[in-house]
Design a protein that fits this description.
The chain has about 280 residues and is mainly beta. The protein has 2 helices and 21 strands. Strand 13 and strand 14 form a beta hairpin.
Amino acid sequence: MVTGAASSAAGDVEVRLLGLDDGVDLGVRTDPAGAFSLSAPATVAGRRYLLALGAVVAPQAVLELTFSEALAAGFAGLEVRDALGNSMEPLIENIDGRGAVRISPRPAWRAGERYTLHLGPELADPAGESWGETLDLEFKVASSTLVGHHPFTTVREVVRLGSYLFVAAGSEGLFVLDARDPRNPVNAVPGGLAFRCPGIGPPGSNGLQVNAVALDPHGRLFMGCGGVDGSAQLRVYDPQNLLAQIAAGITDAATLRAAFGAGSTLVADGFNVFTGGVVGTNL
């Protein structure tokens, strides 16, 4: 019997006992207090056993493993898999020239999910001598916790640029939040101003709903409007124009709208049936 008292490990994680000389492979899950009891067969003097304890890690956590000797280039047999058995293709690197290995997520482990650290039989040292065993040890990622919030009726998509969040909020428009204090994200634009997709819609309407938002590697902002059951627009902005005005303390709504729209590009998927004119560039 192999036992662990409370706090021996995290709660609700996997514990595995692997016999390196006799084929023993047993697993159990810890109780909420981190205790466990694993019924193992009688051990034999001189035989080697590996006891592995799972853990709860943060979404950005880097896993570090230390082996008795260096591993062969390419780290064949070492990977992290998701619940469906697919490789997460993390970044694996040697960190000391010997047996210490770092496994980094790309970009992060998903909060609340469980993953499996896989050590396959092909795992070998630089001379090609493999260990010939298989160890699959589950670990879990801590769930997200609510730090702060900002009220919206609808949120379609969110992207981050520095400390600013651009929020596609459907019929409410596109909002820019200042999230320097994550506990209290606030509208970065004075007066609660939102940006919309005007130009398509019946007279007096607020235009199309803002259903998508994205950033490209050059920092350009893409705002997608409508497109679900009717006309659509794709607008491309340089958000730095707007952010510079905000940083300068400009509060005039017309000035801020002009700054956001300066140099923007509009692409539309057809005609404005309400005005009879072409909006933007026909796709």
